[in-house]
Amino acid sequence: HVHIKIHSGQIDISDLKAQVCAEVWALLFKKHIRDIMYQAEVAEIKTEIIADHTALLFMIHGFNDAMDSYLVDLFYKIDQFNVENYKELFERVREAEISTRSDYMKKSPYRKISEMLQLCLRTTIGVEPSQAIKILEQLTIEDLVDFQTKWMSQSYIQWLQIGNITASEVSYIAGRCLQIFLTSKHQHTPLLKNQIIEKRLVKMPEGGFVVYEDYVKNSADYQEKNSLCAVLYQLGEDNVECFALEELLIKITSEANSVSYTHLTLPTIYSVQISVVAVSLKKK
Questions:
Q1: What is the pTM of this model?
Q2: pLDDT tens profile 8-24
Q3: Which among 47, 128, 223, 229 would be 20 to 30 A from 282, CA to CA?
Q4: What's the rounded Cα separation, in Å, for the pair 34 and 79?
Q5: Are 24 and 73 in contact (CB under 8 A)?
Q6: DSSP secondary structure string, 58-123?
Q7: In whole angstroms, what separates CA 71 from the centre of its chain?
Q8: Under a CB-based contact definition with an 8 Å cutoff, are residues 40 and 94 in contact?
C-alpha cells in the first residue's frame, strides 16, 4: 500500500477557490490517466486520488510486481498533464459537480449532520456545498490552469509505503519519482516543511462551544419537514480514563429511546455525538 500526499502552498485553508480547483483538477486528472489506471486494475492495483483540503492525496494498493513502474508512470503523468487541453471535459465536470452539490443540499438533516460537524471540528475548514456551488458557477478553465501552474511550482511530498518491501527499495522508488518533479518543466522547488498546513482537530476550551447552524430553504420542488440537533462532547486527551467516561456517557444516554448515539473516531481527542431527531420542528 502506498500513500502519497503532495502538499502545496497554493492549497490554502483561507482560499476556498483553490480547494475547489484542487477537487476539479483531481477529477480531470483521473480522466487523463484512465488508460494506465485500467491497466493497473487488470494487474489488481487500485488507485484513489482525493483533494484533501490542504493537499492532493494518492492512494495506491495491490499485490503486483508492476507497482514500482506504475508509480513512476503516475508521476510522469502528473508532470505532463496539461489541464488546458481538457476544456470541454472541464465544462462537463464543472456542471456535474454543481449538480452533485445541489443534490447534497437536499439530503435529510440526519445524513448531513456528521459531515457538517466535521467542518466545525477541523482547523482546516473545508468548503461547504453552498460555497462550492457559487465558486463552481464562476470557475473557468483559466482559473484551473493558473492553479496547476502555481501548485506544480512548489510542493512538499509525504510518502508512506507498507508491504513486502525493504526500506532501501522504498527509498529508491520514491527517489525516482521525486527526480521527475525536480527535473520538471514547471521549474519545481520544494515547499518548506514548516509551510505545510496540517489537518488537526479544534480543541474546544473548557466550558466553550462550537456552533454550526444550517437552515434548509424549502422550494416548490423540495420540502424538508425534519430538523436535527446534534451535541458533541469532547472528553479530553485519548487515554483509558476518557475512554471509560465515554462508555459511561453512552450507557446513560442510550437509556432514552428517543436518543441515538454515535462514536466518532477522531485522532487525539475522544468525542461522543448525541443526535436528537425532531419532526416538523418550528423555526424558533
A1: 0.71
A2: 766 665 678 888 898 99
A3: 128
A4: 16
A5: no
A6: EEEEES-TTHHHHHHHHHHHHHH--GGGGHHHHHHHHHHHHHHHHHHTTS-HHHHHHHHHHHHHBS
A7: 22
A8: no
